[in-house]
Write a structure and sequence with these properties.
Length: 443
Amino acid sequence: MKRYLYLLCLLFSLALSGVEKKPNVICILVDDLGYSDLSSFGGTDIRTPAIDGLMKAGLRMDQFYANCTVCTPTRASLLTGRYPDMVGAPGVIRQWEKDSWGYFNPSGPTMPDLMSKAGYHTGMVGKWHLGFKSPNVPNDRGFDFFHGFLADMMDDYWTHLRGGVNWMRRNKEEVKPKGHATEVFTRWGIEYVKEQSADKKKPFFLYLAYNAPHFPIQPPKDWLEKVQKREPQLDKKRATNVAFVEHMDHEIGKFLDAVKDLGIAEDTLIVFSSDNGGSLPHGALNGELRGGKQDHWEGGIRVPTCAVWPGTIKPGRSNELGMTMDLLPTFCEIAGVKVEHEIDGASLAPIWLKGAKGDPNRTLIWIRREGNRRYQGRAYYAIRRGPWKLLQNTGFEPMQLVNLSSDPAEANPKPPNGKVANELSRTLMDHLQKAGKIPWRKP
């Protein structure tokens, strides 16, 4: 009887969402992609047909934000639906304890936990970056299958080492694949969808996380030569970054082709995003947005994002606000599973499926903690409500106030005076008091 009632509730939930059948769900997350490092986002020296094709085939979110301006916190928010400091991950988790600024501590079920509850097989391929030991490895945080890299950046895309250590795993077993990491992850992603499509007993959820285009910027030699020949005006740093992104795009295209060839494209929701903005010192470009990776200017946190589900999500563009942490409640609503614990994200399903409007005055908060000489272990913050944004870019810098409607380039920030600044400051302090209860070091 309980099982019968559960099925009825599940069907009712799907009907409310406008979803007749549970789709497979694939979340593609790339690393440090510049906002204009796609030809569909204004890049004139770069060619990215695969990702451009996704943007055209689905709903492009023009005001979608990463939860942080660096890697770990955004990934923690993706998997929990929470602000990163609410799950112990305000900064980068590293293998060296003295340089690590977080300890992943979910406050409830993770995204794969919930998708499993909805009847999905859950797999992850690629970059994890949320811990190195149990319980903070993918198989202990809800994933049925993991094939990827536990650490942060790779010292080399061919050796796959970090600090001389091999962090490549198949589930919990160490593996030593050969080849460029971007190609390795594509191959593993294709293997996973082929295996799950052959099974057909249940839908699957795949989190496919590429290390690229995070530095070191290492495209295959022939890709760099091709770009240099086509774009002779570029200096080597920019040409190398362009080649790196184009190689990644090519590999993502191979993965997307595999999904089509398997005949599951119309039964699959694909979401594409980046964990933060492009790194300007490494040749990335963020178009007209100010700043880049590590900054709370728009170039550090606004990321190219789209949702594709042929026949279900109408292609177009949306200016509604979204954030990485929104993907957990969105996927859960579409999958028909209820989120019963506290989260900070909001479902985007009504926007994606029905063209609904979001809350234009929604409050969004950013935090990042880091320990090098620039930051010295301090956290720094930003908060947005409506067009107003209060931000700083280090813990030593005063807050600045911008209005994104009248000053989208953030060229003329003002001192944080007046009613709006006071209200944003109070809301941020309320968040800090709540997050202050959560340890970011291993208990």
